[in-house]
Every structure is written in C-alpha cells, then in structure tokens.
Predict the structure.
Amino acid sequence: MAKSDNKNARPADTNANNEEGKNLPATAKANELVGQTMSSEMESAFGDMADLGSGLENVTSKDILIPRLTILQALSPQLDPNAPEYDEDARAGNIYDVGLQEILGNSVEIIPVHYVKQWLEWAPRASGKGLIRIHDTDDILAETTPDERKRPVTKDGNYIAETAQFFVLNLSSNPKLRKSFIPMASTQLKKAKRLLTLATGERLVNRLGVEYVPPLFYRTYTLGTVPESNAEGRWVGWTIERGPAIDQLPNWEKIVMEIRNFREALTKGDIKADIASMQNEAGTSGGGHDENGRM
C-alpha cells in the first residue's frame, strides 16, 4: 500500500521570511492531532463533566464538508506568503488536503467510491464573486458562447467548467480511510476518463461463470503527479495507475463497511464536497487558467 511521503517528498529548506503567527506546517496541523494522549488531569476533569455530554451530539454528516485533494501549483494560495492559506512547508507539485492543510507528498493511494460530473459556473476572477452556481447537467452550455479561447461563457460573463469529481477514501492520510473528493477539470478531464476507463475495463467471473464489471470501488488506485505543459503554460497534472483490489488489503472487511456508509451518505445527499474551497485556486490545470476554468 502506498504511504504518505509527507516531508520526505519536499526540500528541507524553510522560508527565512516566515513571520511569527504564520500557519504551522501542514503535516503538523493534521498529524499532530492523531494518536495523542490527554493529560491525566484533563482526562479526570473531562470525566467529571461526562454527564454534560461532548458538545458534538448535534453534529451530523450534513454539518461536515468532504475535504478536497489537489495538486499545488506555482500560483496556489498555499504558496503565497500574503494569502491566508499560506503554508510554509508546501511546494508546487505536492498533493494537498485543502480542508485539513495536510501535505501528502507526490502520490496517494485512494479507493474511488462515487463519481459525478457537474458544470460549475464561476464568475471572472477579477470580480471576486467565485462560484455562482452548480449545474448537474450540461444544459447550461446551450446558453453560452465561446470566448477567444473557446471556453463557454454565459451572457453574464461567467465561465462554465465541466468538472469530473471523484469521492474517495484516502488510504495515504493519517488516519487512513479519510473521506475526500478530487475534482478534475480542464486539462485533467482526460485523467478522469483514464480512471473510469481502467475501472470499466475490468472483468471478473462470478461463481456461475458469468463475466461482469466490478464496482468502481473494487480496487485501489495510485494517483501521482507529472509536469505538463502546452502553448499557454506549465502545470503539474495527475497520473493514475491501478493498485491492488481491496480484498488484498489488511482489514478489507472494515474498508467495505466504510465504502457502504460513505456511499449511503452520498446518495442521500447527507454530505457535500468542499467545492467552494476551489475559488482561490490558481494555475492548477494549465491552459492559462485554473482548474475551475477561470482567469
């Protein structure tokens, strides 16, 4: 199973201009909260308050956003010292958990659980308005005209970005099996097609000798990174390769239960992806614009 590269995947240098009060390293922010022990004094104090509850009684899956995995680019806000998202340890090309501010190195192992395609309507970057609305079908394209770069633009000047989205269990996170989602737009749409082609190209034979296509979540996939470019720019894109089937993993029965619970919540609409976090992304898929199709 692929493991998180964490800091070993990045240069050891630090930003000499980092000021007190800047964000802690992303790996610390995420991982330092896992596997800790509470002081005996605090544990005793909390024990005395047990009858008052934990404060999380009213939290449901509807109150939680599924964090996004992305590849950091040269213009990503995590690399901008003046942006609130700035992370002094982050480097262009790192796979990054935006919600938990965790650097995952240059590869992650995931189990795709659910796939959906949406058409995201983004205001021009200069307007500062960000995401306008989400379209579940491509009907909106009939109301657009192509701009000079052949991107569909509405009469209001908004860009429509066809966006493939994978909801996944992240096996390279800490703890493992973290629910995440990965949007792919612009130049990365072909990577989404590759993953779907790999998944639908599989054939198994059941006990009756009948051949069938296994579910999307039958196996793991390793997502890596690779430099890409075209006439309009350079960026870092995804690579996608098959990994082992889930029944080859330790505790695969637990994984199946996680998949079941995740899919049930998704199909009921009980949990949502953190799409809004994409609005500050920049230069994430080449072609002179970001993964949202915005300038």
Q: What stands out?
A: The helical segments are 26-31, 40-48, 189-200, 252-268. The two ends are 38 Å apart (CA to CA). The first strand starts at residue 65 and ends at 66.
